[in-house]
Amino acid sequence: MNRALHFVFKIGDRKKTVKFFKDVLGMQVLRHEEFEEGCKASCNGPYDGKWSKTMVGFGPEDDHFVMELTYNYGISTYKMGNDFIGITIRSKECLERAAANDWPILTSDSKKYLECPGGYKFFIEEEPQPRDSDPVVKIALASSNLDRSLKFWNELLQMKIYEKKDNMALLGFADNQAKLCLIDIGGPVDHAKAFGRIAFSCPAKGLPAIQAKMDETGNTVLTRLVSLDTPGKATVQVVILADPDGHEICFVGDEAFRELSKVDPKGDALLTEAMENDKSDEWFAQKGKGKGEA
How far is CA 156 from CA 83, 152, 182, in A? Predict the structure, then answer.
């Protein structure tokens, strides 16, 4: 069975962003990894320098949809487009934590949401946070043509349509997984520089077939089937696709990913150490310039 895994965010201010996810949303650091050079599958975007990956979520990656925070040491901000609409979380406790931390609680169309550094929105359903299931309900992405998007996600990738009305469709691989919500915005989708990536897993033997299906139907394969190494951890195979609107999609072999994604008890300490040792701001200041803006 395919699984919804995570969404990749590019972050510029690591300390403030981590505070938001931990202290406001109430997520935990699941693992943290540092890399000296860019990812072969562009996991950190089109950048070649030093970067880090921090996985945060409400529980283990085996049964929770989590967030991947990618931090490029030389970049302070990323220009937002209209591609990412928001993630919905069922947790009135998030609003309580936001108030306790003096974090602004915003409203749009009567929906309350929190905005993390960088501008990413997290919509909050005001219900008790579930203890026996994932509080992450869905992730909403923009579509320029909903019918065309559904042909890709439903017919090619075999995601089930749970709901469809007006300019919105809700899809997923299973009832107990976070859903993908596609919203037709009536115009072009602009990914700008902050564009993310949604990740799913499937049995490793199914990866070549996914790639072949994209080739046969004239769809985009951004990174052909490749193995990715993480020092001291499992090697995984991935193929990176793009939907008709350019949303990046990662499919990874499930078996190895379950090994790679085990909760690391040292993850929080590794992240704290990395942030304390991060002198990139000072380095750029000594050179008489600020970090780059993407």
Answer: 21, 5, 16
Instruction: Look at residue 229 in the predicted model and tell me its pLDDT.
Output: 85
Report yes or no: 41 and 211 within 8 Å, Cβ to Cβ: no
| 89 class by beta-carbon count within 10 Å (0-12 exposed, 13-18 middle, 19+ buried) | buried
For tokens 């043509």, what's the residue? 145
2-24: buried (b, 16+ CB within 10 Å) or exposed (e) per residue? bbbbbbbbbbbbbeebbebbbeb
Instruction: Return the structure tokens found at 209.
Output: 């077939």
List the one residue out of 142, 138, 143 whose CA is nearest residue 125: 138
- The CA distance from 123 to 101, in Å, is 17
The continuous run of DSSP H or E covering 17 comes out as helix 14-19
Res. 235: pLDDT tops 70: yes
**What is the DSSP secondary-structure string of 159-180?**
-EEEEEETTEEEEESSTTSPEE
Q: What is the mean pLDDT of residues 211-232?
A: 94
Segment 107-119, tens digit of pLDDT? 999 999 999 999 9
